[in-house]
Amino acid sequence: MKARVPDNIKSIVPYPPGKPIEExxxxxxxxxxxxLASNExxxxxxxKAIEAIxxxxxxxxxYPDGSNYYLVQAIAEKDxxxxxxxxxxxxxxxxIEFLVKAYVESGDEVITSHPSFLMYQxxxxxxxxxxxxLPLKGMHxxxxxILATVTDRTRxxxxxNPNNPTATAIEPAKLYSFLSDVxxxxxxxxxxxxxxxxxxxxxxxxxSLVKNSKDRCGVVALRTFSKAYGLAGIRVGYGLMSAxxxxxxxxxxxxFNVNQLAQVAAIAAIxxxxxxxxxxxxxxxxxxxxxxxxxxxxCASYPSQTNFFLIDVKGDATALHEAxxxxxxxxxxxxxxxxxxxxxxxxxxxxENDRFVHxxxxxxxxxxxx
Length: 370
Ligand SMILES: Cc1ncc(COP(=O)(O)O)c(C=O)c1O
Description:
Elements: H1 7-10, H2 21-28, E1 34-35, H3 47-56, H4 69-79, E2 86-89, H5 92-103, E3 109-114, H6 119-127, E4 130-135, H7 143-149, E5 154-160, H8 172-181, E6 187-191, H9 206-211, E7 218-224, E8 237-240, H10 243-252, H11 260-271, H12 273-296, E9 300-301, E10 308-312, H13 317-326, E11 329-330, E12 332-333, E13 342-346, H14 350-367
Parallel strand pairs: 1-11, 3-4, 3-5, 5-6, 6-7
Antiparallel strand pairs: 2-8, 7-8, 9-10, 10-13, 12-13
Helix pairs in contact: 3-11, 4-11, 5-6, 5-10, 12-14, 13-14
The structure holds pyridoxal-5'-phosphate.
The site of pyridoxal-5'-phosphate has 13 residues, from helix 5.
């Protein structure tokens, strides 16, 4: 084959998803594995969403509603926006793509932090844009550094707030001050995939940030149904933005970008406050328990505003990750991000958390870390 691949595509390293359970069991010959590696919802999906999917199965021969009318209405009502300020995507991943497609031309610059959610930089590479990547400072976005990096070629700034993988959130006062200093020509994307898990005093007023963009940068907030709403497998996320920005994103989206089952599931999940609250309670209680237990066995845990947190395991994280895989527990090593002794774990159910702590303890002893 002689097909020519452009250099910007050749240099992309494919996104490394958390190891699926089936793959681990096939490769390592283990059974009854648990996955605490992809910040998914340990309590499954809303039963109401599953029922809505069931009810919709007889309509699969029809195209979905390309305007996402009812889902957009439900989101607009939940978050207090008007429907023309909401864009729905095949995961919030897809809205990241819309933003880059709509605003970035070859040679334009996009600012991100390292480490942060990996998809931003990949999408920019596909578009032939220039990634300006700033290291986190003490595990937080370096807002001053980001401001100093803005040029007249800067189109977008991505801030995952809370950040993935460090689970830190920006102090609201610092964020407001930062946004007032970003030039009008730039759009700041606040990726709020984990917003539901944040402490109240870390939450920002997205409504006024999106609405009051006169004389300063535009703000887009990204949200997802993959985490607190438990619908990662069906792929649905959304963005809140000015109607003007939404109009630009509609131009680059496919007509039927969100499938029919995802639309009905997300509408039902919004209404299922019981499941949502159960998830938030499970994360809050599970995280507090886990953090206490990992300290007891000699590790250090980092504070977290999300459904996952980092742990200093006092030894090489990749060796520990491998040892845990052999015992059927999937977590993430943060070594590739430059945190040699750190792993990331997602809060699971009571049973999963218990299994994680016991396995961690066994592996720490075997490797002689504690
Ligand atoms: C910070 C952040 N943004 C976006 C996403 C993607 O979410 P979605 O499943 O809606 O595409 C993730 C997924 O892990 C994430 O961690």
